[in-house]
Specification:
single chain; about 525 residues; alpha/beta; 10-stranded mixed beta sheet; globular; disordered N terminus
């Protein structure tokens, strides 16, 4: 199986997904060490070890009920020179750290890092195998309830129904897993991670966090500043924007400015396509922006059916097209496939189009949305971030966001509408202030055209740390994974020797979006949320 096949982003439309691979493990209390065991009979999992540990559900009651945390590790290849354990978080919220390491750990970290560290991934509490916060009794019930909910609503009628559906979902979440939601905050995940740090025997934490994982990193840095050895923070999520501690009363989906970042990256996609000539399928139809914008407008009233490889069909509405585009903007290696999708959507013979093979970008989008354990796994902002308190005003919020960032502003503005109705707060959540007292240098990466964590958040995020070394990656997409050997070298030197680059350093990506892939080598694609 090629890297492109096995390394798919575990999220779509703001919903991070957990792929359920078998795992057998020993169980231990985190404070008493970890009893590592087999990850099951799958030969692909033979290099990994697995375990589950118990941590306090409520750290105010450390001897009370416990929560199960599932974890996996890829042991160091040179144990005689092992530095310690490298903790990771793939993003989300709701991303499975177990899946991330089992699918990607052998590919995305350099041989030098793999030699010196046990690389550890864990499913945060409420996610995947770690006592997931579920919203329905069964996966089938959830699938049925959400089957007809669009990525985001278009028009007053859909908006009213979308708000009703969000309220129903929130009630179901509150009814099914109230105890798990009540202790679901990132601050508790940070406390869990510190327990795990102690359990593996490390005096200080070495950590790589992507996307939402940078919010977890900032929270850990605030709660445990003297326990930091090294932090790599890639694709920075502004703690002030996410939490609402800056006083912004807009919904979290607006505060995160993902719509703005996505529209910037979308325009970059179109510009790079135009420069790519025959390497971009859209150029055969005319000016790429004219073609795509015209097709988007047509899809608002005339959706298109595509046939999937299994014989089923997917109806590509305006909302589905925007959501699929957003997902593909995470990785510049996906830009050619995205162009092919839009070239097919722009076809005038819709009867022929409906019977044709669905483009890879659409197949991936449709596949990913089926793999989550529960939508509850991504509702962490509901219990810790400040909400607008105005759910009926979301149409106005979305309209304003869409004026700033067409298509994507509205899409991302609806993110977290369920939170307005959940009615559960984790009172142990940390909401700022965010400047910390970490003495060690930390390494912060921001990509110039990032659709999910806009570049403009990178410097303010770095300034939260007394000694942050900010690196700008000149390029496109979300995080540096698989995109820049320059960034990989900096990460390796920093983690293994604590040698950090000067603040303000820059890296280039290895290739432009529409450059032909090297012969015999597929792009590495792993995309945190």
């Amino acid at each position: 199986m090629t890297p492109r096949t096995i390394l798919r982003r575990l999220s779509v439309a703001g919903v991070a997904l957990a792929l359920l691979t078998p795992m057998t493990s020993a169980v231990a209390e985190a404070k008493n060490g970890i009893a590592w065991g087999s990850c099951g009979s799958d030969p692909k999992l033979k290099p990994f070890q697995c375990a589950t540990v118990q941590v306090p559900t409520d750290y105010d009651n450390p001897h009370g009920p416990t929560t199960t945390i599932a974890l996996t590790r890829l042991p160091a290849t040179d144990p005689a020179h092992r530095i310690g354990t490298l903790f990771t978080n793939p993003g989300g919220p709701g991303g499975s750290g177990v899946d991330f390491i089992q699918q990607a750990g052998q590919l995305i970290y350099s041989p030098a890092v793999r030699a010196r560290f046990d690389i550890l991934g864990f499913d945060p509490r409420g996610v995947g195998r770690s006592d997931p916060a579920t919203c329905y009794p069964t996966a089938a019930d959830e699938s049925k309830a959400l089957a007809n909910v669009p990525p985001f609503p278009l028009g007053a009628k859909e908006e009213r129904q979308y708000i009703v559906d969000a309220a129903k979902l929130a009630v179901s979440c509150r009814t099914t897993s109230p105890d798990r939601f009540a202790h679901y905050s990132t601050a508790n995940v940070a406390r869990d991670m510190d327990r795990l740090r102690q359990a593996v025997g490390d005096d200080k934490l070495s950590y790589v966090g992507y996307s939402y994982g940078t919010y977890l990193g900032a929270t850990y840095a605030k709660l445990f500043p003297n326990k930091v050895r090294a932090l790599v923070l890639d694709g920075t999520l502004s703690p002030e924007w996410y939490s609402g501690s800056n006083g912004d009363k807009a919904p979290v989906g607006v505060r995160l400015k993902q719509g703005d970042g996505a529209y910037d990256t979308y325009e970059q996609f179109l510009a790079e396509c135009k420069k790519a000539g025959a390497n971009c399928a859209l150029n055969q139809l005319g000016d790429p922006k004219t073609v795509v914008e015209g097709t988007l407008e047509r899809l608002k009233t005339h959706p298109v059916d595509f046939t999937l490889p299994d014989g089923s069909t997917v109806k590509v509405t305006y909302a589905v097209a925007v959501a699929a585009t957003f997902s593909s903007l995470y990785d510049p290696a996906a830009f050619p496939g995205l162009a092919e999708l839009w070239a097919q959507l722009a076809g005038t013979n819709r009867a022929k189009l409906a019977s044709s093979k669905a483009p890879e970008a659409l197949v991936e989008w449709n596949r990913r949305k089926e793999h989550y354990t529960s939508i509850g796994s991504v509702l962490q902002p509901c219990v810790e971030a400040k909400q607008s308190g105005r759910p009926l005003a979301y149409p106005a919020f979305a309209a304003a966001a869409d004026k700033r960032a067409p298509h994507f502003g509205a899409y991302r503005a609806w993110l977290g509408i369920q939170c307005e109705f959940l009615g559960i707060r984790d009172h142990d959540a940390f909401l700022g202030p965010w400047p910390n007292k970490v003495k060690a240098p930390v390494l912060v990466f921001g990509t110039r055209h990032d659709p999910a964590t806009p570049y403009e958040a990178t410097r303010p995020y770095a300034d939260l740390y007394p000694d942050a070394r900010m690196v700008t990656v000149e390029g496109w997409g979300h995080t540096t994974i698989g995109k820049s050997t320059c960034a990989d070298a900096m990460i390796t030197s920093y983690l293994t020797a604590l040698k950090a680059p000067a603040d303000g350093a820059t890296c280039n990506q290895d290739r432009k979006p529409f450059d032909p892939e090297p012969a015999g080598k597929e792009a590495l694609r792993l995309l945190p949320q």
